[in-house]
Amino acid sequence: MKTCERCGNELPVHNGRHRPRKYCTDCRPSHQRKPLPSGPKVREIHPGASSSISLEASSRVALAAADVTDTPQGVLVMTIAKSIDGGGHSGASLAALSREYSRALADAIAASTKAADIGDGVEWGVG
Predict the structure, then answer these.
(1) What is the C-alpha separation between 36 and 22, in angstroms, rounded?
(2) Quick check: pTM over 0.85?
(3) Angstrom distances, CA of residue 11 to CA of 3, 17, 22, 25, 31
(4) Contacts of 121 (CB under 8 A, 6+ apart)
């Protein structure tokens, strides 16, 4: 029977494929894994919480100025703005929503300028 190299106590019989013990469990206890911390790993971000002006309100003003509030692009912008103002997003999802909001707002304003260019009533007599 093997004995502990530090205190001389008997070691349990080795079974398994790992290296045999040199020390008893009193001299060197087995490593215990620490429990993983519980709780949310994602920190929620609430962008409009500290501000009196919401993204939804400023979007509504911008869309009304471009006269595209009731278009599909305008509705998409308002939906994304409401979602961003609602909060509860991780940093990555907030970044993705912000990127899509910017694209949707640019598309809505571009649709407004295209409509104005098509129907402005100016005829150019060339030639």
Answers:
(1) 30
(2) no
(3) 5, 16, 8, 9, 17
(4) none
Which residues 6+ apart lie within 8 Å of 91 measured at CB? 43, 45
**Measured at the alpha carbon of residue 14, what is the angle toward residues 11 and 20, in degrees to the nearest 5?**
80
Q: Which amino acid is at 125?
A: G
> CB under 8 Å to 88, separation ≥6 — which residues?
44, 46
Q: Which residues pair with 27 in a beta bridge?
A: none
Spatial neighbors of 55 by CB under 8 A, at least 6 apart, are 47, 48, 81, 84, 85, 101
Six-digit token string for 124: 């150019």
pLDDT digits (tens), the chain, 127 positions: 789 999 999 988 888 888 888 888 888 877 766 666 776 666 666 665 556 678 899 999 999 988 888 889 999 999 999 999 888 888 899 999 999 999 999 999 888 776 655 555 666 666 5
The domain ranges of the chain are 1-29, 55-117
